[in-house]
Amino acid sequence: MRILRQIELLFSRPAPKPRTRRRVARSDEFLRTVWLNLRQEFFPESVELDSYIVSWASRPQKRVLASCNIRARRVNVARELYEPAASRWIAPVLYHEMCHAAIGMSVQTSASGKRMWHGAEFRRLEARHPDIPAMNAWIQSGGWAMAVRSYRARRAWQTRLASQPNTSR
C-alpha cells in the first residue's frame, strides 16, 4: 500500500521542466567582444578561435582567474574579475587563455610524459601582449586575493540587504 501511495505521489506531481541553457548575460557578451577583439589583433589567421564560448564562471573562484577547455572550446572567467579594481585585467587574462586555445593539444610534453601547458611556445605567445608582465606583478602582489575578498564582501552585503524586511512602508 505504501509503495502505491509513493507511485501515486510521483505521478501526481507536475512534470519537471526541461533543463535549458542559462541565459546569456550582457556581461557574457562583453567577454565575447573582448575575446573577438583580441583574436583579431593577435591571432588574425586563427579564425577557429571565434567558435570558443566565453562566459563568466558559475562558481566562486579562489585560485583560478580563468580556465580554457580546449576540447569543449570553452573559456570560463572568474566573476571576481568583475570587481572594479580587477576589471582592467580581463583582457590580459583572456589573452592568456587564448594562447592555450591557439596552441591547442599540440603542447610540449616533458620527459615524464606530462603536458607542459606553460612551456616555451606558450611563453613566447604570451609575451606578445604588453599587459601580461603587469598582470603577473598584480597577482604576485596580492591583487587577485584582494579582488576575491572584495567580491565576497560585496556579495555578502547584497545578500544581507536583500534578506532585511522593507521597513520604509
Label the overall shape.
elongated
Number of beta strands: 5
Output the helix-strand order: HHEEEHEEHHH
The profile of the biggest β sheet is: 3 strands, mixed
Structural class: mainly alpha
The second-level CATH architecture of the domain at 24-105 is 2-Layer Sandwich
What name does CATH use for the topology of the domain at 24-105?
Zincin-like
Q: Please give the CATH class of the domain at 24-105.
A: Alpha Beta
Percent in helix: 40-55%
For the record, give the distance between the C-alpha atoms at the N and C termini, rounded to a whole number: 52 Å
- The number of helices is 6
CATH superfamily of the domain at 24-105: Metalloproteases ("zincins"), catalytic domain
Structure description:
The chain is mainly alpha-helical and 169 residues long. It has a domain at 24-105: 2-Layer Sandwich (Zincin-like). Helices cover 47% and strands 9% of the residues. The protein contains six helices and five strands. A three-stranded mixed sheet has the order 1-3-2. A two-stranded antiparallel sheet has the order 4-5. β2 (66-69) and β3 (74-77) form a beta hairpin. α3 (90-103) runs antiparallel to α4 (120-126). Residues 15-24 have low confidence and may be disordered.
Which features does this protein show?
three-stranded mixed β-sheet; 169 residues; Zincin-like; mainly alpha
